[in-house]
Amino acid sequence: MNQSFPHPDGGPVRATLAHRAARAKRVMRAALCAAVATLVALPLAGFAPAAHAEKADRDKPLNIEADNMSYDDLNQKNVFTGHVVATKGTIIIRADRVDVTQDPQGYQYATGTSSGNSLSYFRQKRDNVNEYIEGNAVRIDYDGKNDFTKLTTRAVVRRLQSLTTVQDEVRGSVITYDGQKDFYTASAGKDVAGPGNPSGRVRAMLAPRSGGAAPLNGAPATLAPSTTIQGTPQQ
């Protein structure tokens, strides 16, 4: 027996059903957006600490000691002479003369020069390790905006472990060091020519990066006489 039931087709009922369906879609859409936001936020949170490593030297104030100082207002330049020592965070520059300028964005630039047999000096700590990059040259240019250093004429750069042990050493006419990427380059020149290097080629000493022997772990081996070797031992 077939029995039919009346189907309501009034406006208020249809409106209620449509309202519930729309609300359900909104709830599902909000939940989906929240889930996607969570998935996106987790990787960013995981990588965030790496973006806040020790790259803070360029944001530190520049402090300078010298015998004399002059200020060129026209060129916006400070000139320091006489046993100059400039520090900026972990950066140290020593030279006979240091010229300092600053761009409209506030980034500072320093050029250290020395004369005679003396050389200018540069040092900066590497990020997250107890290592330093130090170098000497007649002229040293530091770019505070890009954390970039250029050493010119009779240049030598060393990578130090704990300020005491030389790990790498590079000699050349011009050496550049990129502090943001921990990357440096060297080029040859006549100013580094000598009896053993008449063409002034780049010279480098690079220590191996491999560590020492692996630690001895685990229980000692058990020794037992062989059951397969035959004959009398040879003396």
UniProtKB/TrEMBL annotation:
Keywords, in A-Z order: Periplasm, Signal, Transport
Superkingdom assignment: Bacteria
Single biological process term from Gene Ontology: Gram-negative-bacterium-type cell outer membrane assembly
MF annotations from Gene Ontology: glycolipid transfer activity; lipopolysaccharide binding
Domain Organic solvent tolerance-like N-terminal: 63-182
Biased composition (Polar residues): 224-235
InterPro entries: LPS_export_LptA, LptA, OstA-like_N
Tagged with keyword Transmembrane: no
Pfam families, per database record: LptD_N (PF03968)
Transmembrane segments: none
Presence of keyword GTP-binding: no
Annotated spans, Disordered: 189-235
GO cellular component, one term: cell outer membrane
Location of this chain's protein in the cell: Periplasm
Subunit structure as annotated in this protein's UniProt entry: Component of the lipopolysaccharide transport and assembly complex.
NCBIfam families in the record: outer_YhbN_LptA (TIGR03002)
Protein role: Involved in the assembly of lipopolysaccharide (LPS). Required for the translocation of LPS from the inner membrane to the outer membrane.
Family as reported in the entry's similarity comment: Belongs to the LptA family.
Name under which the protein is recorded: Lipopolysaccharide export system protein LptA
